[in-house]
Each structure stands twice: as C-alpha cells, then as structure tokens.
Design goal:
It contains eleven helices and seven strands. The relative contact order is 0.18. It is about 45% helix and about 15% strand.
Length: about 260
Amino acid sequence: MIRALFNKKGGVGKSSLTVNLAAISAQRGLKTLVLDLDTQCNASRYLGKENAEKDSSVFELFDQTITFHLRKKPAIEYCQPTDYENLHMIPGSAQLGDIESELSSRHKIYKLKEALEQLNEDYDRIYIDTPPALNFFSLSALIGVDTVLIPVDCDDFAIQGLKSLQQQIAEITEDHNEKLKIEGIIANQYMANAKLPSRIVDELISEGYPVIPHYISQSVKMRESHQEQKPLIHLAPGHKLTKSIIAVHDEIEAD
C-alpha cells in the first residue's frame, strides 16, 4: 500500500502526519518507508535525516534519470534505516527544485511510479510527504500511489481549496492513475471548543467529503516531538494527540 499526503496549502501538517502515521505503522510490525518529496525536508528533519548526502537522497534518485551514471542505483539502495525498527526513509533534498524543469521537459513524470513499484515489493507500507503545490514532484507521487490523504486545517479556505483539489485529483485518476482515490480528509489542528472548526467539518461531511471521524487537535506536544526528532508513538504513546493519530491510522487500515 502506497499513500501520499497532499494539499496545495502549506502549514496543514502534512509532514507531521506522514511521519507519525508511518511510525505507527512500523511500530505495529509493518515494514514501512517514508519518502520525502518536499524541498523543505521537514519529514527528513523529523526523523534525523536532514543531512543526508546528495547521492543517498531523493535528489539522486531523480537525477540519475537525466544524467549519465555508470551504474543506476535501484530505488531500494536509497532507503536508509532510522532509529526505529521497521521504519526506513528516502531523505528529501532542497536541490530537487534545481532539476524540476529538466525532469518535466524530458518527460520523466512516470519515473517515480517505476521506483515505487519496485519498492512496493520490499515494503508493506509507503508514505510520501509531498510539496504544498501541484508540481512535477507531487504529480509524480499521485501517479504512483494507491491513495491520497488530504490534511486540512479547519478554516473557511479549506472547503474552497478542497473543491479544486478534488477536481485535479479526479483528472489525474482519469489520465494517469486509474486506481488513485482520496482515502480520507484529515481534520488537523482541530479546536473542539471553537465553533468554526466544527462548522467546517460539518460542511465537509454534508458535501460528501470522506472526512475521517477522528480529529487531530492542536498541542504543544507535536512541537516537542519535532524538537526531539521523535515520533509521538515513541515520545508520548499515551498522550491524547498520539491516540488521535493512532485512531486515524487504524481507521485507514480498517478499510
């Protein structure tokens, strides 16, 4: 199973949810891979892999498709172990943006799909953190995954953005990846005592969006988790925030 977390809006918690869902998967005994496609490399930083060498990052995985190499490395050789059992990562790179236009002009949009097909033979679950834009790299991911999870923050722009995003995903499904589906909308940074988040979520549900019925609240514990570079399942397994992300994980795995 290959999942991407994607939203064209930044600051909705993609990287945090990618790492934490993957860490829960690994903790449950599933061999799990995190692939960081965001040039901000937040997922890589979260797992202590922000200083990966260029030739062992996702940059080289793409770059070898457009430059001469005596030996092209298979995708599995880019997968690095983390500090956690069953959890591996292909680290991100800020240099991805340097080769995006060339990759696009040379029609390499299906190269990630080919790599993911190989990796899917070695991993039970693959989670992809995507950039907050529909660019070459996020499109490459959506072409190669089984499902997409869409984190949203609960403000008035969420519904407007989702309408356009849903249409774009439908076009990708039709043109490039017939198996692609929206697995769920994750309500993140949810404030239970505020009226607006509740109204936004109710509107999304009433309009037929597949909102996962477990909401992720705001908590300083997430920032502590980032600082410690330790996923919540290992830092604070009994915390309310951790339990809510576990509930999201178990919901998507139950489908």
